[in-house]
Structures are given as structure tokens and as C-alpha cells.
Amino acid sequence: MIRKAYFEDPAYVPLLLRAYESWRKLERETNEDLLCSTGLLMVGEEGSEIIEGSRRAANQHNLSIESLSKRQIKARYPTLKVLDEEVGVFEPEGGVLSPERAVHAHLGMAATAGAHMRFGVAMESWNAIDEGFEIRLTDGTRVSARVLILALGPWFQETLESLGVSIRVQRNIQAWFSPATDAYSASGFPGFLLERRGFPAPLYGFPDFGDGVKAAYHGLGNLTDAEHVDRDVDLSRDVEPITRALEQWMPGAATTLRSAKPCMYTLTPDGHFVIDYHPDHKNLILCGGFSGHGFKFAPVVGEIAADLALDGGSRHNIEFLSHRRFLSGNRM
Predict the structure, then answer these.
(1) How far is residue 157 from each of residues 37, 271, 291, 303, 310, measured CA to CA in Å?
(2) What is the rounded distance in angstroms from the CA atom of residue 209 to the CA atom of residue 101?
């Protein structure tokens, strides 16, 4: 999911504007469709984090959104079950990214630019040596580098915790369903975020692009680690809660389960990213703790990391993402 009216913090909005530009540029350069602007419907009670936060970000950055009453939501999407106390915010430019195609497109552009990529091997360790680094791979290869950028996903836990940043790795389930109606097809239905009283976490999802309606709770699951995550999906434990919630919101959307799988959230204490230099190595750049909402920022995070590596600073405001905010006594 990609959106500009970012309820998490308005400080992300300039990064999102750049991310939108970069995704569209990547589409042009690769002739791939990567970002589909379905619009995004956010629903919750007045005063809820999603509703108030989205409005705050839109107001601060002059973004286009629509505030909708229950009646207006029902008029636009008659199948939805909207509670009396719920209201909506609709962002016309919200949409859905295709992650597999996006990764493939980025890799293709990197290869064209001369990047050397390795697959089927992992980084075993890194060590600071003289003015640079030595990276050891699991196939026995050793790589020397002047500058190192670490973007390790859930494998970032040890690195960040060594800097005093507490990290939790959470197992989250996402599920795809065949709906009983075409009301939820991508041609006429948006992505959605629902913050509802009684739900254990916000419910989010995407319309049917031909592979079913996707839905998941945002930030709900047991803690795990990257090496021991349970990849087996239990229907009663993992899928039924999503099915029940989806049917309470979009009747007929979860008629038949197509597939389900876990993903890992790498959660910082405040849910915001860490993009910063390592305090002991000014040529080591850290990009992690994306807390389940980082992929949409991929091209701009890459741009920031490249700026830090090559220029010693970033054209973007990333001070609010410094790991130093977690240090005792720090005021940022």
C-alpha cells in the first residue's frame, strides 16, 4: 500500500512525494506497471489515529483528501458494513504497489548501472578493517568495501540492539480470498485501512486484481526472530481472525481462502524507521527497523543511503529517523 496522507507522522510526507516520483520514473525506464492508483479508503471513529493522523498530514502538506460520513461511504461502496460512529477519509492518490515486479525492475536497473549482485548466499559477518570493511559470505567469499550500507530486514535485530535500540520481530499473516461478488474488483474498489473498536489491530487490504482480495491485520502477531519464524499457517489461529474481521467489513469478500503466508515486521519502539550512520563508523550506513511500513519508501531510502555513502549527507530531512532518538537523555 502506498499513500501520501501519512497518519504515522507528517514528517514522512516529503519522502513519500519523492517516492511517488521515483516509482513513476522506474515505471517509465522499465516499461513496467508498478503502482496502481486505486484510491485509498481509511475508516475509523472521529479522533482515531488513522483518521486524525491522515487529516493532519494532509493539512500540513496541502494534500488532496476527502472527508466522508457514514452515509457518503455507503453511497459510494454500498456493500460495506460501516458502523454508526465511523467516518472516512479517502485519498485519491493512494494505491497499491506490485512488490515482486518492483524488486525485479530495481534489480534490472541496478544491473544496467553496473551493480554486481549475488544470490543464494548470505552475509555471515562484517568487520571494520583500517578505513573500510570486510564482509564474509556464507560461500567463503570475502568482499572488501570502503563504504558499507546495511539494509537487513529482520536480520537487523542484532545490529540495532548493539546500539541500544530495542527491536522486536513480529510474525504477521497476510491472506488472499476469492470473493463472492465483483464489488471488490480493482476496477471499482479501493485499498482500505480500517481502525475499528474491538479489532486487535487495524485491518488493511487491497481489492481483487485477479488473484483475490488481500487482507491482513497491521502489526498483529507473535514475536519471533528471522531464523526461527514459523512459516506454517494454521487456519484457525492465523486465518480465521482475518476472515471474521473482513466479513464484518466487506461481506462476501472472504468466501474462499486462496492462500496465506507469514511476513516479518521489524519493529522499533516507536514504529519509525532507523536511517543513520553507525556511531562508531561514519562510513557505515544503517537502514532498518521499517516496522511493517517501509516498502513504499524503497526508492527514496535507496537514494538517501546513496547520498549518505557518497556525499556525507542527505538532501532529505531524516533527522527524525536517527537512532539517537532512542538514547537515554536525548531530545530530538
Answers:
(1) 34, 14, 12, 23, 26
(2) 14
The distance in angstroms from the start CA to the end CA of the chain is: 29
pTM over 0.85: yes
User: Which tens digits make up the pLDDT trace of 268-294?
Assistant: 999 999 999 999 998 999 999 999 999
pLDDT at residue 329 in the model: 54
User: Please, which pLDDT band fits residue 130 given cuts at 50, 70 and 90?
Assistant: confident
DSSP 24-74: HHHHHHHT---EE---EEEEEETT-HHHHHHHHHHHHHT---EEE-HHHHH
What grid cell was written down for 48? Answer: 482515531
Those residues whose C-beta lies under 8 Å from the C-beta of residue 123, and which sit 6 or more positions away, are 135, 136, 137, 138, 152
Q: What are φ and ψ of residue 127, in 5° steps?
A: -140, 140
Cell of residue 254, nine digits: 472472504
Mean pLDDT of all residues in the chain? 95
Residues 6+ apart with CB under 8 A from 187: none
